[in-house]
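Figure 6 in text form: structure in, sequence out.
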């Protein structure tokens, strides 16, 4: 299964719905370029919706960390929502669940980013 995404913007929050499997940095080049462009425009609130993401490995986690670092350096933040059980276990094992804002729904993610 390949990786893809859809983006949307609502209330100054850029939301990215991720699909498939994120296992290689090359797969996410379009996503990273789009996020870089948004951050350059000072749009630094990012919501990653993982509802359709089936699998994530260490390369995928590294991509998330890069996104988080760029957003926070620019005064923004990242929230991750709709995490499946397998990916949530990976976040817990790596202790990244304490670094990222992880929540159950898009609405909760938006609330976190609007604080």
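Output sequence:
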């Amino acid at each position: 299964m390949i990786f893809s995404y859809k983006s949307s913007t609502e209330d100054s929050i850029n939301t990215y719905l991720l699909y498939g499997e994120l296992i290689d940095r090359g797969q996410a080049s379009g996503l990273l370029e789009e996020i870089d462009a948004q951050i350059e425009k000072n749009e630094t609130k990012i919501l990653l919706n993982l509802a359709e993401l089936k699998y994530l490995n260490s390369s995928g986690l590294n991509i998330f960390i890069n996104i988080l670092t760029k957003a926070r350096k620019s005064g923004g933040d990242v929230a991750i929502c709709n995490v499946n059980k397998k990916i949530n276990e990976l976040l817990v094992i790596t202790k990244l669940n304490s670094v990222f804002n992880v929540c159950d729904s898009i609405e909760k993610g938006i609330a976190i980013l609007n604080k």
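Caption detail: DSSP finds four helices and five strands in the chain.
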